[in-house]
Amino acid sequence: MAETKSMSNNSQGKARKFDLGELFLEGRAFLALIVIIAVFSFLSPNYFSVSNFLIMASHVAIYGLLAIGMLLVVLNGGIDLSVGSVLGLSGIIAGYLMQGVELKSLGVILFEPVWVVALLTCVAGALLGAVNGVLIAYLRVPAFVATLGVMYVARGVALLITNGLTFNALAGKPELGNTGFDWLGFNHLFGVPIGVLVLAVLAILTGLLLSRTAFGRWLYASGGNMRAAELSGVPVKRVQISVYVLSGICAAIAGLVLSSQLTSAGPTAGTTYELTAIAAVVVGGAALTGGRGTVRGTMLGAFVIGFLSDGLVIIGVSSYWQTVFTGAVIVLAVLLNSIQYRGRKTA
Amino acid sequence: MARAAISSSASSEPGDVVVLEARHVSKSFGNIHALKGVNFAVHKGKVTTLFGENGAGKSTLMKILSGIIKPSGGEILLDGAAVTFSSSTDARNRGISIIHQELSLAPNLSVRDNIFMGREIISNGQVDFAEEERQAASLMQELQQSIDPLTKVEDLRLGQQQIVEIARALSVNSRILIMDEPTSALSATEVEVLFKVVHDLKAKGVSIVYISHHLEEALLITDYAVVLRDGTMTAYAPRKSIDLEWIVRNMVGENYDLGSPPEGHEMGSVALAIEDLTVPAKGAAGFNVVDHLSLSVKAGEIVCIYGLMGAGRTEMLECVAGRLKSSGGRVLLEGQDVIGLSIGERIARGLSLVPEDRQRDGLVQTMSVGQNLSLASIRAFVRGLFVSNGDEQALIGKSIKQVHIKTSGGKAAIGSLSGGNQQKVVIGKMMATNPKVLLLDEPSRGIDVGAKGEVFKLLAEGAKRGLAVIYSTSEVGECFSVAHRIVVLRRGRISAEFTANTTKEKIMAASGESKAA
Question: Which residues of B touch A287 (CB under 8 A)?
């Protein structure tokens, strides 16, 4: 028995030594963000200012909104490649509704108030998400394939609606009572862009959803081990569909914010944004195999990627190099993820 | 621990030469000690059989001997010199091959290609198929098998596939062959063929390390027996000084009492009635894995279901719990049909399943001990929108105490627990749902004897409170320690029913377990 005892002591001693490394691993996204801010502040005098941070934050808002939806899907062990296209299509739907819907039989053109447009757009995003969810949960199409298909279809529909053109008249007309679409993208509340506030509110709500509700626990459980969750009475299929619906809604909100920021909606908006969203989730420490990840991490991930690429723009690095850097950061993040989770397994 | 100090050479028969020796070999995974100082020797041209229950450490020992994992302590001596294997390839190059329980053949390739997989004979930059075929054919001849080297492995019977595995091991000139449960999937005639091959191999000087759950069968070819229990070697002796009783005594432990079925409480009315239940086999196989089965269990009663692999135990329990769809019959929980309800709804009504494979179906490895414990009953803690943290922690604390989980607390990682404690988490999780009927599918698999006894105690306590229990097992002995009634399943039907005062032999005969002649 003496032998076995001394062995367990040894392994405990090792675990203690690893603590410092673990702390670094746990907080790596936060550390990375601080390093990025410090380096760019040093390189450019324009970087470290409140106004620049707010501008960068409103860029991050778009990716961040997509990343929140993506996080939910990734926690479930899935992936949603359609968010970039859903973002684009949502913008187009909003633009289409803002132009006025002509009802031929009644001979009128209907101009909806902005809140109705926003609501309908979110409903459209939710429906697209539901298509993903049903394909994956009930028809057993692999998530990668199902969302890849929806990605193409949504993009194609966006191009069909506009015939490849862009909706520009999103500002609305006072006499029609449909002004205010630019509120989301241009206005500030307490000096903070509305888009950033939307992101903050959604992040807090999602955080509560994940940590405090039964749904959150079900999501972590079904992502960690779907069979065990099912046998514990978790409605795994409903959870699975819900995450894709929520991801669709997040993409629609992102589409509204983006087209509001640009006061125009183009059919190609949001192309490849799904990859940036996945990157943010991964950099934030979530495991693509499901069951591990937090909103806080994902938000840090989104800010790391956003602040890095904006910083590179500010110091005048070519956009080609930005792509290289972003790629390197993602690979590094995944590398650290695997080290972290491997360490946990043996511990 | 005194037994572990037996010198292996002391128990050798005169004239036998030791080729491989394990000295104080131990292995731990985290806090789990799978092997605690094992000593034994493998002799030239002899069969050394490892006996032990599930989780006794047999597989771990095999994996160490064949270089798949490294021991955490002790040493291995090959021909008297200490060796460390860097990989299974390294061990194979030194003449030690392993044949796994799950065959590692590529079914889409031919016998020839499988035998030479990864070591293809190359001449002039190409694979010399003719030479491979010639060698494969001569190997088959050596093993006295009429298998065409060009047959695809998927077209062979399981017994023949086993022969191909052996041929592959022989083709690398293995001196030591490790066989893990080689007969578990074989028919009686195929077992005879295998044993003949073993005799031929012995005559050629090949040493064999053999593992089997069929004790009587294994004794037929054993020259030396090693018995493991809970990772400790409890006995090592040559064949002539042992018998079946000796093995069982050392395997199970003579002083360990797993208890007896709970007595002295009134049984209630029928809690669960299964009527004419039929579950079709997966795919379009055309037969039923559960075939018009009827069974009822009273409140406070523990029913043990015994049967061989594939008898339909797991399918029946999974169907009752709601995981599998039935094609006919009814499942009545306190008189109400629950077929058509989801798993969650059945749990809410008091019907819970502790699944067979705790890693795959029981635990969420990414969540803590506490989160696993509360997973099935979390709906009960929702106050308004949110889960009440206080109520949840109270339940977790209560569960840890109730099922005696040895853990640093609810926040500990699942992986930090031993197998037995992990199993208790799964049981505790389902107990927390306040079930009226608890189904347990082989809950004692891979947990040590002590934990097994604790699981039985939990079930007995539950029964006294009026819980109806259906408990499935493939170890006959367990039935006597816990069950009021023993039901034997064979090919999806109930082949016999016994009260607790029957014998092992009767139960095994009813299950169709064949004892090799």
Answer: 366
